Amino acid sequence: MTPTTNTAPGGTIAATSLLRFATAGSVDDGKSTLVGRLLYDSKSILADQLEAVERVSASRGQDAPDLALLTDGLRAEREQGITIDVAYRYFATARRRFILADTPGHVQYTRNMVTGASTAELAVVLVDARNGVVEQTRRHTAVAALLRVPHLVLAVNKMDLVGYDESVFAAIAAEFADYARGLGVREVTAVPVSALAGDNVVEPSPHMDWYGGPTILEHLETVAVDHDPQAAPARLPVQYVIRPQSAEHPDYRGYAGQIASGVLRVGAPVTVLPSRLTTTIEAIDTLGGPAEAAWAPQSVTVRLADDIDVSRGDMIAPADGAPPVTRDLAATVCHVADRPLRVGDRVLVKHTTRTVKAVVKAIPSRLALDDPARRTAVEELRANDIGQVVVRTAEPIALDAYARSRRTGSFLLIDPDDGTTLTACMATEPAC
């Protein structure tokens, strides 16, 4: 068995490759319209969907279909003309399949943007050409950078409303690139568009001959996305211990879960964390039967050669590449709850399949959105704040740095009283 990737021999994009991407930006920058235009012009919507949009648009007295309605599915979204929840859409072209997360623009819904971008491999950040880079643009860019979304696209929208002026686009692109660079983003692809008119979304614009780059869809179809599971060390968070104790399987003991990263192979030496007990993989059971190897994101049951204590929340990792085990977790965070997070707060830490009690030890700083290099000391984090947090857990956790693994380097802070998610956390390097 050999894991497959999305890049065919010679570096060409395979027709079956998948790209997960998210859209973000401030209120009324045109995210939903851009997504609707993308679906409409790429012929990725059904006839009855288009008819429904045309019917609702006509009832509002609009001459043309309001393409934003293709993604704004909640009644409140349609009535207010805004996006509230993350809208997921699935579509495909001849070159690639896509999972798209259209995220809200309002500041109070930034938590939804965190959800949509957490699994994205590319983020499209929209800017209204008339307004340029605003605070919410900076906040969404900071979130995308902290979540380590590999590719960032700046879509300067509503170019038709500024006369398709190249200088307007160039000034916004330069300002955005400088800000993104301060957040550690190495590369930004900037595209001037008019989502309403369709300029540079799917088809090149006849109004901007000064622009020679790709359209939004062309970039989405061709951007390099590496899904090679062997590029990361193996991690299997144990979700369930399977022990039938039946006449047919009297001695069966397997450890089930979804492989978070890497490849597991029969015979490979592994360590069980946090106990640090070592053994080897005796067998791997999949839905299709026994396998010699399995890789992320497959769900498997692993049997070990030695009878050692393994339970839900433990992690199986290579003996020579295991993550550090710690009780002090340092992280860059986005606080998503309405109630503030303060030093001394008692919380639950949820990391993969493990949930443990913890206390907030310190909040060293909060990010100043106008200057990524400036960090201000604070006593608490409020809703949508981005900052640094240190927590102390009651039990040890096997934690990767987020820079190495988005899956096993992230965790949540949860209110122990009502189960509310408080804070999304990205472990810093090194974990301390």
Q: How does this structure look, described?
A:
The protein has 432 residues and is α+β, with helices and mostly antiparallel strands. The strands form 5 sheets. Strands 7, 8, 9, 11, 12, 13, 15 and 16 form an 8-stranded antiparallel β-sheet that branches. Strands 2-3-1-4-5-6 form a 6-stranded mixed β-sheet, with helices on both faces. The protein is 17% helix and 34% strand. The chain contains 7 helices and 25 strands. The N terminus is likely disordered.
Q: Would you spell out the secondary-structure blueprint of this structure?
A:
Blueprint: E1 18-25, H1 31-41, H2 47-59, H3 75-80, E2 87-92, E3 97-102, H4 110-117, E4 122-128, H5 135-146, E5 151-157, H6 166-182, E6 188-192, H7 216-222, E7 236-237, E8 240-242, E9 254-258, E10 263-265, E11 269-273, E12 277-286, E13 289-291, E14 293-295, E15 299-304, E16 315-318, E17 325-335, E18 341-342, E19 346-351, E20 354-367, E21 375-376, E22 380-381, E23 386-398, E24 410-414, E25 421-427
Parallel strand pairs: 1-3, 1-4, 4-5, 5-6
Antiparallel strand pairs: 2-3, 7-16, 8-9, 9-15, 10-14, 11-12, 11-16, 12-13, 12-15, 17-23, 17-25, 18-22, 19-20, 19-24, 20-21, 20-23, 24-25
Helix pairs in contact: 4-5
